[in-house]
């Protein structure tokens, strides 16, 4: 079959016939992409969309950015190797130069880097192995609402139990701690008190000989929970977790796979709190849109033997060239500051619908934002004032799609609309995105209330 002039329907039908039932995005975003440029994609039927999914945050510079395309073309035209395992090349050393330049000096000056197989979950697996090897301990401290990938070790850290039920027997060494989610405070106190209680709980748990928690090999957390619904950790809480882990010699692993490289308004999200981690996991944006994952960690943890961690595709030279170009561009053009400015601009649109009963919370940092939809009517005994409203969120997602905006859902009950646009998004783009979203939310709210809106 020729797909060059095929329609969305033809390609989607073929995909449904041949791909596994585990596929996700096409179920809510029914398009096949013909071309893409910057912050937009065009489907096979000629419809154009603003892309606020952007490869789940992978495309920091958007689609087909000239700087990234040029770097890849230059690599291919010069007959450079594209796959080298962990044998080094000039392209690899330049990538590491750029990567370390992007990190705070007090971390990078004593850091080592481990290249992993291509996905972020591979970096998480390597980080877990690293701290277990270095400490001799086995248990890991994770957090409720977390998402760190889909391999077995990474799934063990996930807060959502549905995806990990088939392998639950492998997960006895992970302890899930309360994340300071103010809107759905696990302790029911809410507000700023939420993170103070959460900090005290963790410290008391670790010091209680009857807690049932064995000596941890490490603590892993997301400074901003991504798939968990764009939930930012308060800086004070992050500083407390750094103090608690340092005082007890527990390596602190920060998962910056989605938040890293400028998205939250700092080059790395942990910089908002001014802390220095022991381990950072990175993927998505650092590969410039191509598969690449690394673990960067304090050299004191570098005790594993040669070959202790490997992976066939850890030598992706094309991704290193694209990643070097992306990192350099983000730093040279101050895209972290731009993300902070555009994030505030977009957030003003999101907050304009916060008065609606169906909107429970607007949150996030920089260009990593979320709007959580709720149902205020039924009695709700879970954390937070109201139940997540999955149906409303899916209706908003569909209404946005119909109007030319691609959004992802996440968070509790997949009831949070999430915004992850490329960092190069302009003021005009943000205004269009914001207007489309507000129009979609108001339309669904009016339909739910039975209000007739004049054409």
TrEMBL record:
Entry keyword set: Aminotransferase, Pyridoxal phosphate, Transferase
A Pfam family matched in the record: Aminotran_3
Polar residues: compositionally biased ranges: 1-23
Cofactors named for this entry: pyridoxal 5'-phosphate
EC top class, as a word: transferase
Gene Ontology MF terms in the entry: diaminobutyrate-2-oxoglutarate transaminase activity; pyridoxal phosphate binding
Source taxon at top rank: Archaea
Region spans: Disordered: 1-24
Similarity-based family: Belongs to the class-III pyridoxal-phosphate-dependent aminotransferase family.
Protein name (database record): Diaminobutyrate--2-oxoglutarate transaminase
């Amino acid at each position: 079959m020729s797909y060059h002039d095929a329609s969305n329907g033809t390609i989607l039908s073929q995909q449904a016939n041949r791909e596994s039932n585990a596929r996700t995005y096409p179920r809510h975003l029914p398009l096949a992409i013909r071309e893409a440029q910057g912050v937009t994609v065009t489907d096979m039927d000629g419809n154009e969309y603003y892309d606020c999914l952007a490869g789940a945050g992978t495309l920091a510079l958007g689609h087909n950015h000239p700087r990234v395309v040029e770097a890849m073309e230059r690599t291919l035209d010069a007959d450079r190797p594209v796959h080298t395992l962990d044998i080094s090349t000039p392209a690899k050393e330049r990538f590491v130069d750029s990567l370390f330049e992007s990190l705070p000096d007090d971390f990078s000056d004593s850091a080592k880097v481990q290249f992993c197989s291509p996905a972020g979950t591979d970096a998480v697996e390597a980080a877990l192995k690293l701290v277990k090897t270095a400490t001799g301990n086995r248990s890991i401290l994770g957090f409720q609402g977390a998402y760190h990938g889909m391999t077995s070790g990474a799934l063990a850290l996930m807060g959502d139990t549905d995806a990990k039920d088939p392998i639950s027997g492998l997960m006895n060494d992970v302890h899930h701690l309360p994340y300071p989610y103010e809107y759905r405070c696990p302790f029911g106190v809410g507000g700023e008190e939420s993170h103070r209680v959460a900090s005290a709980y963790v410290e008391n748990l670790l010091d209680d000989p009857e807690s049932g928690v064995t000596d941890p090999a490490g603590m892993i957390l997301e400074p901003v929970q991504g798939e968990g619904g764009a939930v930012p950790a308060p800086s004070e809480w992050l500083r407390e977790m750094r103090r608690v882990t340092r005082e007890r010699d527990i390596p602190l692993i920060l998962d910056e796979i989605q938040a890293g490289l400028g998205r939250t308004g700092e080059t790395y999200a942990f910089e908002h709190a001014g802390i220095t981690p022991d381990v950072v996991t990175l993927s998505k944006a650092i590969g410039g849109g191509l598969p690449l994952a690394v673990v960067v960690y304090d050299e004191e943890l570098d005790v594993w033997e040669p070959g202790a961690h490997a992976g066939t595709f850890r030598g992706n030279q094309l991704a290193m060239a694209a990643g070097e170009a992306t990192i350099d561009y983000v730093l040279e053009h101050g895209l972290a500051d731009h993300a902070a400015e555009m994030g505030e601009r977009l957030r003003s649109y999101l907050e304009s619908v916060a008065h609606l009963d169906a909107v429970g919370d607007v949150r996030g940092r920089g260009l990593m934002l979320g709007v959580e939809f709720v149902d205020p009517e039924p009695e709700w005994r879970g954390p937070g004032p109201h139940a997540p409203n999955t149906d409303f969120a899916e209706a908003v997602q569909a209404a946005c799609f119909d109007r030319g905006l691609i959004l992802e859902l996440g968070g509790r009950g997949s009831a949070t609309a999430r915004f992850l646009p490329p960092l190069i998004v302009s003021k005009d783009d943000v205004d269009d995105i914001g207007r489309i979203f507000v129009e979609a939310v108001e339309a669904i709210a009016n339909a739910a209330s039975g209000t007739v809106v004049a054409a």
